[in-house]
Amino acid sequence: MTNLIYSSLIDKKKAGKKSFAVLIDPDKTDNRKISELTQLAGEAKVDYLLVGGSLMVTNHLDETINQIKRQSPIPVILFPGTPSQVSRYADGLLYLSLISGRNPDLLIGQHVVSAPMVRQSGLEVIATGYMLIDGGAPTTVSYISNSSSIPANKNEIAVCTAMAGEMLGMKTIYMDAGSGAVFPVSPSMIMAVSRAISIPLIVGGGIKDPETAYLSGKAGADLVVVGNAIEKDASLIKEMSAAVHSVPVRI
Question: Is residue 125 a contact partner of residue 97, using CB atoms and an 8 Å limit?
Fold first, then answer.
């Protein structure tokens, strides 16, 4: 296993540069849509392509990733909703541990089951402390995980949770308001968490426009992830990517 993806995240964080990722859900795309997304992502200088979903009712994860890899040099990172969402054709895997909830199965249980398959895949594994933040509406991930989200106005809970994740050895923290969230993770919470940890901070969910993407990066997100908004309007990729990459460099 290499550490190229994580090294790039660390290098960009040290340089004060922000990154932008497009989340692709295989359940919601077809070959034509994938071609459109990869072309736009390349033109927009998107940094990473995340692939995954909470349910994955279809069975073409490998096919989706292979098509992306044929059409784009952008690193492909798995964003798995279940242990079965592992493909050796990707470049890396966010190995998510739901540290914001109290469901032991998603904290460590499913990892025990999936560990042999993940090890054999040869993927770059990035241990990720996954935090669900209340986005104003029930989401698929909150339902599937059977876990309560951190209240949107409780910055101190988010900060302490992220700090614990880092001290437990997580390589990144991912704060997610969830697909279809009414509102995104607030800039004040992003800023508070960013100041409290030294590892890369990923933020996604409820980001519907370039301004929100920009404010998320400016507040302290090292990697901004957008999926649902781009599923509805793929042309937003260019504006979103430009907004995130225009955040002033701070070291």
Answer: no
Rounded distance between C-alpha atoms, residue 206 and residue 55, angstroms: 19
- Local structure of 98: helix, strand or coil: strand
The CATH number of the domain holding residue 134 is 3.20.20.390
- DSSP letter string, 73-96: -S-EEE--SSTT---TTSSEEEEE
Q: Specify the number of domains making up the chain.
A: 1
pTM: 0.95
Tokens of 243: 């907004």
Residue pLDDT, tens place only, 120-139 = 999 999 999 999 999 998 87
Are the C-beta atoms of residues 100 and 149 closer than 8 Å to each other? yes
**Measured at the alpha carbon of residue 219, what is the angle toward residues 214 and 225, in degrees to the nearest 5?**
55
CA 102, 105, 108, 111 torsion-angle sign: negative
- How confident is the model over 10-47, as pLDDT tens digits? 999 999 999 999 999 998 889 999 999 999 999 999 99
Q: In the chain, what percentage of residues exceed pLDDT 70?
A: 96
CA dist 158 and 219 (Å) reads 15
* Structural domain includes residue 146: yes
The answer to whether the CB of 65 falls within 8 A of the CB of 90 is: yes
